[in-house]
Amino acid sequence: MEMLQYDFMQRALLASLLVGLTAPVVGIYLVQRRLALIGDGMGHVALSGVAVGVFTGTAPVLTALVSAIACAVAIELVRAKGKASADVVLAVMFYGGIAGGVVLIGIAPEGTPANLNSYLFGAITTTTQEDLIAFAGLGIAVLGIAVGLGRQLFAASNDEEYARASGLNVLGMNILLAVLTATTVVISMRVVGLLLISALMILPNAVSQQVADSFRTSLITAITVGVTVSVAGTACSYYTATPSGGTIVLLAVAVFVLAALASWFRRMVHVLRHRPAAEHPHEHGPGCGHPAVPHGDHVDYLHDGHRHALHGDHYDTH
Amino acid sequence: MQPPPDVPQPPGSPGYSESPESPESPGSPDSPDSARAGFETPGPRPAGPGTGPGAGPGDAMLVLRGAQIGYTQHPTVRSADLTIRRNEVVALIGPNGSGKSTLVRGVLGLARVLGGEVELFGLPASRFRERHRIGYVPQRHTVGGGIPSTVHEVVCSGRLPRRRWALRSNREDRAAVAAAIETVDLTAQTKVPVAHLSGGQQRRVLIARALASEPEIMIMDEPTAGVDVVHAERLVKTLSTLVDNGLTLLIVTHEVHPLRNVLTRVVGMDGGRITLDVPADRLLSSTAEAAHPLLAADAHAVIPPTDLVAGWMGTTGIGG
């Protein structure tokens, strides 16, 4: 492997591995809550933060982090206490963030919009030792929270109302998730860029949605896809001399299209082999009087010489 | 972050003693997990002792005294007085906008108690932490979010009120979840994604999730709305099994008729106030009707409950 001879490529591959591992874990709860675009909104706000950093001469990553986290908390509070719905709050973030960034860069003395390019689109080959430490810290924090509070995050994102009735601090969970999202966006922006980081949070989970059958397998699938596309995309960009962020996201989109096609094909095969039973008012179950026969992942019931398997609201003949 | 849920609380306020069982004893006779399996005991449920408004005052699970409940400063429910005791099966009926959902949401902490008192198991609602003692089945036709989740995973989230800070399920959790899934007869679908289930099955998943915390009272919001006759009968069969195992039920509903065999009491609301509170068996008898002015429409005929309720709604000017 020729590229491994270079320190910058070693760091780049390690960075993409860490980001590919972390981003889908945050993203799965966003997709579960049907807030897939919120990472993108935070990216736009972080852009304003970067511009503030450039404008005032302080570290752009720090100002971006502060603005994204402040925005994350504000969104959850507005959603919980105010009248605005999630999609409207998102729209405000998109417009406000991008406009603030452009205006601030415009009036910055030595600043030109070109300064934003490395933040917008990422430059993984410029990853430094310090960046790697930040990625590792983020990865440990995100995975630790996902393991430690996984049950609560699942409950709060699966059914907010039920979680509240269970006595769970749903607002706290939502703010935690929003802060995690903001932190992931800002820390990962050097790798894939502000405009593409949310793709790395969401696309691996979009693949899971197509192929997985449970939350657990979804998480495993998403992490696998995330790590694979970001490492492969970085390696690929070395040989093709293409921007790393775009290459990673294009790979993720390709995996998603393949998964969607595979899922569609699987459904078509299923439909072709699908033989629903005739009008069937009787409901099979343990002790229903029909012998139960385990059949792969389900149970068939012997009924008039053939086997019936429950399928949604009717029975199939197997 | 909230404090851990299972902080022991001092005994209840005057007049309402705490229930005799410690909420933490897993094998208490009232926890409905002991003999849940099977549906072998369906059929009409005779209104036994301890039912109806006349039962003894000792086992009050839920008490509202002049409760004002709403979402803004303006209460939707006004001065509601209601006591639900152990082993009651209460239907809370009323036209749309009468405040019945708001009332139960106030009990669950989803709406604000603006005045009066709401007591849960002898404690003011604001100090009540043992949320696992109350099971909640929301009015919803589907379960789950954007990521595929299995029946098992969704029902597992019902264990949260019991063991909030646990990292993983222990044996007790797994047993309770399996029993809850068995009760609603979805054992064969345990590993199936909820999105693949029919609407009726998804509702049973929601019931199983509420049962997973091994509650003493279960609050259900419109469990039969939009459910066909066959599935409504199944649901009632499940409910009567639960009632036989000692679960107390408060059911918000439009339709008393499908539930007639399990109900012990019917509470009616109109315009944010409780305007009807009768034992369910009185709805089925001909003689007692005259005792209640709202039900006196036709005292000489045995009226099916739905007609009675329709009549009551007629008298309140809403129309059934």
CATH class of chain A: Mainly Alpha
Describe the biggest sheet of chain A?
4 strands, antiparallel
Structural class per helix/strand content of chain A? alpha+beta
* Number of helices in the DSSP assignment of chain A: 12
CATH architecture of the largest domain in chain B: 3-Layer(aba) Sandwich
Amount of beta strand of chain B: 15-25%
Number of E-type strands of chain B: 10
Number of domains of chain B: 2
Order of helices and strands of chain B: EEEHEEEHHHEHEEEHH
Helical content of chain B stands at: 10-25%
The number of helices of chain B is 7
- CA radius of gyration of chain A is 24 Å
Can you tell me about this structure?
The complex is a heterodimer of chains A (318) and B (320). Chain A has a single domain, classed as ABC transporter involved in vitamin B12 uptake, BtuC. In chain A, 71% of the residues lie in helices and 6% in strands. Chain A is built from 12 helices and 4 strands. Chain A has helices spanning 7-32, 38-56, 60-81, 86-107, 117-121, 129-148, 150-158, 160-165, 170-192, 194-211, 215-240, 244-272, and strands at residues 292-295, 298-303, 306-311, 314-317. In chain A, strand 1 and strand 2 (298-303) form a beta hairpin. The longest helix of chain A is centred in the C-terminal third of the chain and has 29 residues, at 244-272. Chain B has 320 residues and is an alpha/beta fold. Chain B has 2 domains: 57-121 and 216-315, P-loop containing nucleotide triphosphate hydrolases (Rossmann fold, 3-Layer(aba) Sandwich); 143-215, no CATH class. The radius of gyration of chain B is 19 Å and the shape is globular. Chains A and B meet through helix 1, helix 7, helix 8, helix 10 and helix 11 of A and helix 2 and helix 4 of B.
Task: Describe how the helices and strands are arranged.
The complex is a heterodimer of chains A (318) and B (320).
Chain A: H1 7-32, H2 38-56, H3 60-81, H4 86-107, H5 117-121, H6 129-148, H7 150-158, H8 160-165, H9 170-192, H10 194-211, H11 215-240, H12 244-272, E1 292-295, E2 298-303, E3 306-311, E4 314-317
Antiparallel strand pairs in A: 1-2, 2-3, 3-4
Helix pairs in contact in A: 1-6, 1-9, 1-10, 1-11, 2-3, 2-4, 2-9, 2-10, 3-4, 3-9, 6-9, 7-9, 9-10, 10-11, 10-12, 11-12
Chain B: E1 60-70, E2 77-85, E3 89-93, H1 100-108, E4 112-120, E5 123-124, E6 134-137, H2 151-156, H3 171-183, H4 199-212, E7 217-221, H5 229-244, E8 248-252, E9 265-270, E10 273-279, H6 280-284, H7 305-315
Parallel strand pairs in B: 3-8, 3-9, 6-7, 7-8
Antiparallel strand pairs in B: 1-2, 1-4, 4-5, 9-10
